[in-house]
Amino acid sequence: MVFGLKNFLLKGGTRSPASLPEDVRLALEAWRASTAPALDGPHFHTRYVVVDVATSGSRAAEDELLGISAVGVQAGSILPADAFALDLAADVAADAAVDRQLMAFLTYAAKAPLVTYHSPFVSGFLQRAYKERLGVDFQPQWIDLAWLLPSLFPEKSMKVVALDDWLEMFGLGSSGRRDTMANTLVLARLFQMLLVRATGKEIATAGKLVEESQAATFLRRHH
Hints:
Layout: H1 22-33, E1 48-55, E2 65-74, E3 77-87, H2 95-109, E4 114-116, H3 119-134, E5 142-144, H4 145-152, H5 163-169, H6 180-200, H7 206-222
Helix pairs in contact: 1-2, 2-3, 4-7
């Protein structure tokens, strides 16, 4: 039998922190009190977290979050030791197990900028889960490769295309079905290439890259 997060959500409500297991509540308090990393240093010094989600469908308000996969990228390198995988598609014994797994991702990410492909899709599922399970308004700094790649590599494509098209253009493997962690790793490889191009265009800090991503998203959606 497959279980997703929907079985444990509160039907649109927001969880009270007082109802959380004590260890989760204390970890959440520590996370809230923690300082987000500065985004004004060079990319070489910044830890980025590349993230993807597994879901039962495309509708964040209705479908299930089944898992989260992530890997750290720093100093231009993918860090295998800095990887994270959360599987909500397996049997979960109790609500507390779900709370602890979701809290584990917050602790792992540590408020680093998050990199993904189509951030509205990924963030929609995460925002719902964190609001309803932990009472968190999950609003990280997103870098969206779907919109940023055409902005920085117009010679390859000037429009938003499928992820597999970018992989083919960069010679990063064949298209086809991948599990969430495999998808995260190919996103991380694309992000490595994007960092090199961004630096060459004097987008030299995480803060500027977040701004460029936001600008590219806005312009391409409204023109």
